[in-house]
Amino acid sequence: MKTPLFLAALFFCLGSLFAAEPFLGPIPVQFVAPGTELQIDLRRFIQTDDAASLKIEAGTIDPATLSVRLPIAENEKGLRNLSLEVGTRRTILTLAITGKNTHRFTFRPERPAQKVHLAGSFNGWNKTQIPLVGPDAEGLWSVILPLSSGTHLYKFFVDDQWITDPAQPAQVPDGFGGVNSELTLASAAGPQIFVDQIEANTLRLLTSSPTPSLITTASVVAQFIDGSSRLLKADITSRSVAVPLSDLPPGTWVRVIAANADGQPGNIVRHRIEQPGVFSWQDGVMYYAFTDRFVNGNIANDAPVSHPELLPPANFYGGDWAGIIRKIEAGYFEKIGVNTLWLAPLNRNPAGAYQEYPEPRRWFTGYHGYWPISPTEVDPRFGTAEELKKLVAAAHARGMKVLADLVLHHVHTEHPWWKEHRDWFGTLELPDGRKNLRLWDEHQFTTWFEPYLPTFDFNNEKAVAALIDNAIWWAEEYQLDGFRLDAVKHIPQEFWWKFRAALRAKIPRPLYLVGETFMDREGIRSFVGPNMLDGQFDFPLYDVIIDVFARETSDLRSLEDALATSERVYGSEALMSPLIGNHDKARFMAYADGDLPDPDFPKEEEIGWQKPPAIDRSETWKKIALAQAFLFSIDGVPMIYYGDEIGLTGAGDPDNRRLFPGIDKLSPEQAATLANFEKLGQLRRQHPALRIGSRRPVLVERDLYAFVRAYLEDRVLCVFNRGFTPIAATVTVGPELPDGDYRDGLSDRVLTVKNGQATLHLAGRSAAVFTKK
After folding, report:
1. What separation in angstroms does the CA of 428 have from each of 384, 433, 486?
2. What pLDDT is stored for residue 88 in this prediction?
3. In the prediction, which pLDDT does 73 show?
4. Does the pLDDT of residue 513 top 90, yes or no?
5. What is the pLDDT of residue 100?
6. What is the mean predicted confidence (pLDDT) over 111-130?
């Protein structure tokens, strides 16, 4: 029997297959340097089928690509607000023009070079745009480049070969298996502002900055539920911004950024006008309950695969939806502060085992759920359709949201779409005779993951329509609250515009879309916006968290740099998801305990088969407690990978997917880690400053780190001591923290603030979260 195209005949018609209502969403503040050109792909933020209806008061718009090009004058500085119109709707594009720095890049090749170019995040990685001059008498090639403050990623392109900067030790993964050089340029601090109070229906913001960075100008924008925005009048003084709220409806966000007399912009803060009874995703805490490895609630549906060469870690373990329901009803997730569940893919997966393409060609099953063989059937090893609906209903009854993992890039060869619609898929063979397998970078949008996982041809409109309709069917059939989207960077941006527009048109409730993309921040950001994904997992920040807290190869100054860079690049409107663990990464504890990296096994997956990690060092437990405290203290929708709350260890896939132990089987160290995690979860739930408040670092040293967060009357001080010895340090925490006593939610110790200062006493290898006593 042929598989129907679901609702395609109702939703679309050929010729205007993906027509959608015009849409306009908020655009984050764009940081840009003078003397440069700003380029923005507006399709991340708007939807229109009539490019002529799109107008901006400055710059030019390419009607074919809906991209804006806006030159910034050499002498321009400070804040600039531009009006952008889509038909009768309008939004505000705010530019924050930062002070310009110059940096001299130099390169000394190991052997004579003919051509040397510089490419990086500052020029869209154009490998021929910035030539270096040389060589000089000392063999150096060089170029002086104007750059904005912040972090820049780059490489040299030398005679058709990419090379990192040997003179720059700071390097970060590039998302394609290599690394980029990283350069951070300090900025002159602009006004640091925070939401202080609401009085007489007027929002008051104050600055904590010293005299040289007092407020001169401010951009105050109201962002409405319908995606439009407008400038608000505000009363601005050197130390405050007062914003009338009387005509703003519930659900509106007020965004404020200020600049000083030198034109240097400061931080961005947003205030939410509450909608009683309406969930806000800024308050979300996500938990990936990796279904097969979480809890086995019904042994009757256990169906491990029998195969002579299949090893247990690659087989089904028996976890199911009945087990997750048991955890929901026991209040486990509420206890640890979780209000959003992410479930493994729901589709039925094959019943047998398949051999992976790379050596050593082990056999695997579809226990993970990422090999769909049906567009509508759930996997019986996870439960029935009725049980899935019961799970969602149980979560909703407790105020929790449910996301399903959605696989859009491929299906398994047992899927009926592959059997009946071969034209919907690409081909495995390349013109040069190679197989297009795992060519992540070379053939980003067409590569296959395995020979038995055919990739969709996203130029085929019927295939795209079927995928979109299928996603809508899953969301409506099971009343899902959103999707975690697999392999985002391997699906063209054009698909995501169509996907978001269709979901917006057919599903009345707002869905949270979070993606997985292993790229640098600019690459990740290119898929994020109100007309694409709400956010993605912040893997660049994750990499630094691992280096700082687990491996201890970087210090806490690099963590502040990475966090500040993420905040600036993604923007305050994006719902990014920070994390310390993921099912595609080795476990935090394996790095923290020294099991990884292992010089004998370059591939982390192989370590799991040959030398499965075990926790041998008591200090390892303190490391994860520090990382957990940091995760729960920053913006976004933090993602908890099942088992990270108890310190589960494991090498690469599948060793990082061990069975979750019963709570009654935890070791004393695991139980203590869970108890600390529960405190963190409740602190985040109780304190909006930790979710949407301003953040100002007050102490940034190699092993000491502290920042204050403020939102209305809620004030929090977060402190981290990575060193082995106790510390006593006096820091200025006012005006965010008024004088008085504050209690650490993790230890109950009391901190006294007097004259805006506090003396911190903190044990080695520990964190503290101080809130008003």
Report:
1. 34, 10, 20
2. 87
3. 92
4. yes
5. 63
6. 87
Measured distance CA(553)–CA(565) in Å, rounded: 19
d(CA 229, CA 606): 52
Q: How many CB atoms sit inside 10 A of residue 116's CB? A: 23
Q: What is the rounded CA–CA span in Å between residue 166 and residue 181?
A: 9
What is the separation, in whole angstroms, between the first and last Cα of the chain? 66
Per-residue tokens: 537: 């997992």
CA angle at 627 for the pair 624 and 631, rounded to the nearest 5°: 135
What are the residues whose beta carbons fall under 8 Å from the beta carbon of 374, sequence distance 6 or more? Answer: 347, 348, 415, 416
Cα angle 746, 749, 751 (rounded to 5 degrees) comes to: 115
Q: Which residue has the tokens 């709400």?
A: 534
Return the DSSP state at 133. Answer: B
Percent of the chain residues past pLDDT 70, beyond the cut: 96
Residue type, 14: L
Band (559; pLDDT cuts 50, 70, 90)? very high
**Rg of the chain over CA atoms, in angstroms?**
26
**Cβ(182)–Cβ(204) below 8 Å:** no
Report whether 341 contacts 395 (CB < 8 A). yes
SS (H, E, C) 550-600: HCCCCCHHHHHHHHHHHHHHHCCCCCCECECCCCCCCCHHHHHCCCCCECC
Query: How much of the chain exceeds pLDDT 90, in percent?
Result: 84
User: Does the pTM exceed 0.85?
Assistant: yes
Angle at CA 564, nearest 5°, toward 623 and 524? Answer: 95
Spatial CA neighbour of 671 closest among 606, 629, 632, 625: 625
Q: In what order do the strands lie in the sheet with 229-231?
A: 229-231, 217-223, 253-259, 265-272
CA distance 391 to 321: 7
Tokens representing residue 122 in the block = 């500052």
- What DSSP line would sit under 666-680, residue for residue? --HHHHHHHHHHHHH
Contact 578, 639 (CB under 8 A): yes
Give the chain's mean pLDDT.
Answer: 93
Q: Are 657 and 290 in contact (CB under 8 A)?
A: yes
Both tokens of 64, joined, read 């074919």
Structural tokens at position 209: 């900055």
* 724-756 residue pLDDT tens: 999 999 999 999 999 999 999 999 999 999 999
Please, what is the Cα angle at 663 between 659 and 666, to 5 degrees?
80
Q: Exposed/middle/buried for 555, CB within 10 Å: 0-12, 13-18, 19+?
A: middle
Decide if pLDDT at 7 tops 90: no
How many angstroms separate the CA atoms of 711 and 692, rounded? 7
Residue 186 scores a pLDDT above 80: no
- Report the sign of the C-alpha dihedral through residues 483, 488, 624, 706, in that order: negative
- Three-state DSSP class for residue 248: coil
Long-range contacts of residues 611-618, Cβ cutoff 8 Å, at least 24 apart: 611/651, 612/650, 612/651, 612/655, 613/587, 613/589, 613/649, 613/650, 613/651, 613/655, 614/649, 615/589, 615/647, 615/649, 615/669, 617/593, 618/669
Rounded to 5 degrees, φ, ψ at 97 are -95, 110
On the question of a cis peptide bond just before residue 360, with omega within 30 degrees of 0, the verdict is: yes
Mean pLDDT (whole number) for 492-516 = 96
